Amino acid sequence: MEFKEGIRRHPVIAAVRNEKELKRLENSRPQICFLLFGDINTLPSMVDQVRRMGKQVYLHLDLAQGFSNDRAALKFIHREIGPDGVVSTRTHLVRNAREEGLFVIQRLFIPDTMSVETGKHLLKQSKADAVEVMPGIVPAWVYDELRRKRELPIVAGGLLRQAGDVVQALQNGASAVSVSGGDLWNLDLQMNP
Predict the structure, then answer these.
(1) Cα distance between residue 41 and residue 32, in whole Å
(2) Which of 22, 61, 128, 190 has its CA 20 to 30 A from that of 90?
């Protein structure tokens, strides 16, 4: 199953921050998990654990401990840990990870109008496969602008605390949302056919 299919099945991505949330993931609806914790020693078993649950797993490179920011680390992650993909805010890591054959989600922070233009420029440079926009509550025009040149899956992440926040982000144009804590993972949302 690929990323687009996973978010089509259930547009809520489980952003897992700790062991307790990892345990809650097993009996939850999300098809996709963003691992926001772990280190070089624990990530191989955590990735295997998520895979045994039948879910896709994406490592947040900026939050994983024990790795450098170079190609050797990306090769190791791809070959030895084997996630479905990675997430990062760092354009050079996104670009290098793509060149190493990983599916890459570039995380962008959008606090103002100028950062939308910067984000578009970064996405053009990195050639990311998908983008995560933070905070998740942004106007619809932001999603439209980010998709203007290239049709990318866009994940809304951050500051989504209630079901209404999730629904609003999806209505504004997000393809999916990433939320932590588990309270919103099993939302019953109308899926697109």
Answers:
(1) 22
(2) 22
Residues in the chain with pLDDT values less than 50: 191-193
Give the CATH H-level superfamily of domain 3-180: Aldolase class I (3.20.20.70)
| Helices and strands of the chain, counted as H and E runs | 8, 8
Binning the chain into helix, strand and coil, the percentages to the nearest 5 are 40, 20, 40
DSSP string, 51-96: HHTT-EEEEETTT-BS--SSHHHHHHIIIII--SEEEES-HHHHHH
Question: Can you give the pLDDT at residue 149?
Answer: 79
What is the length of the chain?
Answer: 193
Nearest to 181 by CA among 6, 15, 12: 15
Strand partners, 179: 14
CA–CA distance, 158 with 191 (Å, rounded to integer) = 22
Q: What is the pTM of this model?
A: 0.95
Return the bridge partners of 60, or none: 87
Q: What residue spans define the domains of the chain?
A: 3-180
As a whole number of angstroms, the distance between CA 57 and CA 32 comes to: 6
- Cα 93–123–163 angle (5° rounding)? 95
